[in-house]
Amino acid sequence: MAELPDTREKLTPDTFLRGLWEENPVFVMLLGMCPVLAVTSTTMNALAMGLATTFVLVCSSMLVSLLRNWIPKQVRIASYIVIIATFVTIVDYGIQAISLELYAALGAFIQLIVANCVILGRAEAYASKQRLTTTFVNSLGMGAGFTLALLALGTVREILGNGTILGISLFPADFQPWIVMILPPGGFFVLGAWLLLFNWLRLRKERKQTEQIGVTAHAR
Amino acid sequence: MAKGIEIRTSPHLKRVMSVDKIMRTVVLALLPICAFSVYQFGLSALLLLTTTTAVAVLTEWFFARASGKGNTVSDWSVVITGLLLGLTLPPGFPLWMAAVAAFVGVALGKALFGGLGYNVMNPALVGRAFVQAAFPVAITTWTPAFAPGRFAELIPSTLTLPFMQPIPVADWVAGLQMDGWTGATPLAIQKFQHIELPASDVFTGMIAGSAGETSALLILICGLWLAWQRMLDIRIPLSVLAGAALMALPFWLLDPGHYPSPWFVLSSGGLMLAAWFMASDMVASPVTARGAIIYGLFIGMLTVVIRLFGGLVEGVMYAILIGNAVGPLISSWTQPRVYGATKKAKESE
User: Fold this and answer.
1) pLDDT in tens, A50-64
2) Partner-chain contact A179 B136, CB within 8 Å
3) Cβ–Cβ < 8 Å for A10, A131
4) Using CB atoms and an 8 Å cut-off, which of residues 150-179 of chain B contact chain A?
5) Any stretches that span the bilayer, and where are they (chain A) (predicted)?
6) Residues 6+ apart with CB under 8 A from A184
7) Alpha carbons B341 and B334: distance in angstroms, whole number
8) Does the distance separating the beta carbons of B133 and A176 come in below 8 Å?
9) Taking chain A, what is the end-to-end CA distance rounded to the nearest angstrom?
10) Domain limits, chain A
11) Which of B108, B133, B165 sits opposite A176 (nearest CB)?
12) Would the CB atoms of A181 and B134 count as touching at under 8 Å?
């Protein structure tokens, strides 16, 4: 039997950092948009959602990675979903135990973590092919990137829509809240603005790189 | 090839009409309405119109520069956006909120789609819809028309500090001691108390309301002049007004004490200004003749439905935005049949 080429990734800082910037699940891959738009009306909700998703992401990816040689190819998606659902149930009860208020604010979106594309995408595209250690680091990076994106939306929406951050008032008492920001359209506006910023930064970087290549080519 | 000879496909005969000439004419038609607005509401209206126009122009200039499109301010279209936006806002609207509206309108409603000719919706209304959702209280705070001393002092809420709540105007209004001032527009009085103000007052604009939408008569004259100059498709305003009147008529006949008369519907609120100057936006309205009529009727009817049965007092803004959204669909439905083409093209497939 021919040996398959080793596709396993070596552990580098990039394994972690990719999730934060280059392959950011929200700003670059546009995955998991549902919670991104729905539960980011306050910073607290955004942070809780981000951490919950990260927990499920890391745990399920590791389990998938451990079991990758035993899961038959034909039923892999179903198996991944069962694994993810297990951890979502844990998070669901966990949040309920920690803060009932937060549980009510996040609503159905905790259970909906099970359908989050970021998690299934990691299981399918990474964890099912990689070693436990790299999977752990990579999914942690992805989770951190997801949390970062949620926080980016949540802080802007809470500051403009409520004049507060994590419930602490930032402005004098007669601050005029931008009510639209805590309404659903505000989520789209802020997400659009962040995507604009990210794309602009990425394009600028790419343009600089091509210019540099052009300059060196010219110098030769 | 010799210089100065242009080789191109038909049409070879062109009207001597450029974008900036059309836009300049529209601005000219808007000026009397602006002047009446300033006469009616004083310095605050002047500052409001100046702010929205200046911010709209600056935003356009910035985005044109950033996208490397060259100067698009000089086609005057953005001046129309700024003026129209100012005319639809309450006269005492805080200037910083007006600036937000103008920025959002031009940036989100126009620049992001690619500038003039690509905007899906009327930019001025996009800006107004944004501040309607963001600052619902400020945009429904009305001040009386023809206040004494309106050329010497500003409405207090005009000069609110940025990001602060508008300065309350109740005390200032009480100090004016104007008879019969209830703090509501004729539309709101009709909707909630079922009292119709005298139609002549409403028609000529001797009432409270947004800065530039009060005088239906003046808007009608300016609009007709514009149509006579062939700068707008007269089918659109006429069918908007017809749609609104037709929709209001049966309800008024059934219960005149409860529902407004078609005449009141036409002359009150922002319907007149919107029909002549906003629904007829050349970019965002359907291109076919039949399509323009369907689009106008749709907007007029939707306006009355929102007014009579919606939570809002005035519905023409959302009616036009929805009309803009379905405009391309109406256009594609009403494509004229190509001469000589058979109707039963499907059977040949």
Assistant:
1) 999 999 999 999 999
2) yes
3) no
4) 163-166
5) 20-40, 46-65, 77-96, 102-123, 135-155, 175-198
6) A37, A38
7) 15
8) no
9) 48
10) 14-168+178-216
11) B165
12) yes
